[in-house]
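Hello,

Our lab assistant flagged a job as stuck in the queue for most of the afternoon. It eventually completed. Since we weren't sure the result was trustworthy after the delay, we are filing this so someone can double-check. Below is the sequence as submitted and the structure that was eventually returned. Let us know if re-running is recommended.
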Amino acid sequence: MPLYEYYCPTCEKKFELLRSMSRSDEPATCPSGHEGAERIISVFSALTRSAEGDVSSVASACGSCSSGDCGSCGIG
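-- returned structure --
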């Protein structure tokens, strides 16, 4: 089951829920019991480690980002 991120306007806090994809857009109840939290876009980062131990960002959002910075693509 996918993990989705929601925002509760009453608490002004974000929280995560494991939900089926068919229920992902339904309003959720926050951990404090407030109803009506809406799903928000989750931001994540993927990292890779070279054989030498160097850590760098992996730009998976588009294939043209060779530098690991999607600013040139208009995504970042």
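-- support follow-up --
The delay was a queue issue, not a problem with the job. The result is valid. The CA atoms of residues 65 and 73 lie 7 Å apart. The first strand starts at residue 3 and ends at 8.
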